[in-house]
Design brief:
By secondary structure, the chain is an all-alpha fold. The chain is 76% helix and 0% strand. InterPro entries: BP-dependent_transpt_permease, MetI-like, MetI-like_sf, OppC_N.
């Protein structure tokens, strides 16, 4: 049996109890189901939204929730519900793409640092420690201010703030896995370091990285909303949840719906991601599984 077969068989055995634990976890169903609905709503926003999110109706400005405008209108007479649905697309896209970018870059750096070791590991982890020394929001604010406000720059800014956690999470298990027998077998067969990292080490640490990704996507959505609130997010008139809160803040006492509904949307999304991330972590942790 080759080392690849050994690795694949070990992963099959490992995945079975994880899937079983997830199926038995009601919180996993709650978080995953809620997130699935939010994603569907974002995808089909053009079909679901009752109005054009950019259409202005001055005669209906600051209208409270009614039969015509279920969640009311903003100071320009735009339908809050329609903007909320379209804003989900921006918030989820930025959250997913920034975390995916951070996951690829950070995990690659962590795996290389753990596998190569020595001076390279010290340099990489030193840079990681520097990134971790900055609060996430403050670092994202500085990078977004330097790059400018745009969809792409916001993804880059948030991704940079989240590279360090992925590098740390990927490094530790890489150090442990590289000493296992099937990795030694791969080296004896003359496999390149990149092939060993991609075929033998990555599948064994991927579950840990995915758990961190689900948790940090919630942080990415919060960061995007915070940056949008202070004017460093995607610029108006594009609808974003953080931007909607910022636009409605001046009228919070007379038009509460402008702030409450986008805030609730952020709360539900972040809560669903945290619940799903905790369920994944509990399912992967063998100590937790044995106690269920």
């Amino acid at each position: 049996m080759t080392s690849a077969a050994i690795s694949n068989s070990s992963e099959t055995v490992k995945s079975s109890p994880v899937l079983t634990a997830l199926r038995r976890n009601r919180m996993a169903w709650l978080g995953g189901g809620t997130l699935f609905i939010i994603v569907l709503v974002a995808i089909f926003a053009p079909l679901i939204a009752p109005h054009d999110p950019l259409e202005q109706n001055i005669l209906a400005r600051l209208s409270p929730p009614s039969a015509d405008f279920w969640l009311g209108t903003d100071s320009y007479g735009r339908d809050v519900l329609s903007r909320l649905l379209y804003g989900a697309r921006i918030s989820l896209s930025i959250g997913f793409l920034s975390v995916l970018t951070a996951m690829v870059v950070g995990s690659s750096l962590g795996m290389l640092a753990g596998y190569i070791g020595g001076v390279f590991e010290q340099i990489v982890m030193g840079l990681v420690d520097v990134l971790l020394s900055f609060p996430t929001l403050l670092l994202g604010l500085m990078i977004a201010a330097m790059l400018g406000s745009s969809f792409e720059n916001l993804i880059i800014a948030i991704a940079i703030t989240e590279i360090a956690p992925f590098a740390r999470v990927a490094r530790a298990p890489t150090i442990a896995v590289k000493r296992r027998d099937f990795v030694d077998a791969g080296r004896s067969l003359g496999l390149s370091p990149l092939r060993i990292l991609g075929v033998h080490i990555l599948p064994n640490i991927l579950s840990d990285v995915v758990v961190v990704g689900s948790l940090w996507m919630a942080s990415a959505i919060r960061t995007e909303a915070s940056l949008a609130f202070i004017g460093l997010g995607v610029q108006p008139p594009t609808a974003t949840w953080g931007g909607m809160i910022r636009e409605g803040f001046d009228n919070i006492l007379t038009a509460w719906w402008l702030v409450v509904f986008p805030s609730v949307a952020i709360l539900i999304t972040v809560l669903a991601l945290n619940i799903l991330g905790d369920a994944l972590r509990d399912a992967i942790d063998p100590k937790t599984r044995s106690g269920q």
